[in-house]
Write a structure and sequence with these properties.
- The protein has one domain.
- The chain has three helices and nine strands, in the order ααβββββαββββ.
- It is an alpha+beta fold.
- It binds zinc ion (ZN).
Length: 133
């Protein structure tokens, strides 16, 4: 297992070939995937409280980011793209990971104290590769 550095969100946004930018591109971006199931658990109206689970597949792929539901959060979300690319690179069939939103909360009274959004995302990915046979 290698510890490769994680790209920053801004770098991802600058990529000329964004993930899933158009329908049907999933198979082009991940030609080795035959099928996959991606489950993302996030707060229903973050960052705390009730959770909801989003389900994606190769025919219903997620975007690069799953949005944060915290109404106070700026620029929030969790990058599924990073997790998926890493999984495919490592030929992983099962990935369970989690992380915090990349956004920040702003004070409703306009104070300058921003703090990291505490919305937590849990991700479970199951991939079947075409070369599995
Ligand atoms: Zn957030």
């Amino acid at each position: 297992m290698s510890h490769d550095s994680r790209p920053k969100a801004a770098e991802l946004m600058d990529q000329s070939d964004p993930l899933f930018s158009k329908k049907g591109s999933f198979a082009e971006v991940f030609p080795s995937i035959e099928s996959c199931v991606i489950e993302v658990e996030r707060p229903k109206r973050g960052p705390y409280g009730e959770k909801e689970i989003l389900k994606f597949t190769e025919t219903n792929p997620p975007g690069e980011y799953v949005d944060c539901t915290n109404p106070k959060c700026y620029g929030g979300g969790f990058s599924i793209g990073i997790v998926l690319r890493k999984a495919v690179k490592n030929n992983d069939t099962n990935v369970n990971t989690s992380g915090l939103c990349k956004g920040q909360e702003g004070s409703p009274k306009g104070a300058k104290l921003d703090r990291d959004c505490m919305s937590h995302f849990s991700v479970a990915i199951n991939i079947k590769y075409k070369s599995d046979n």
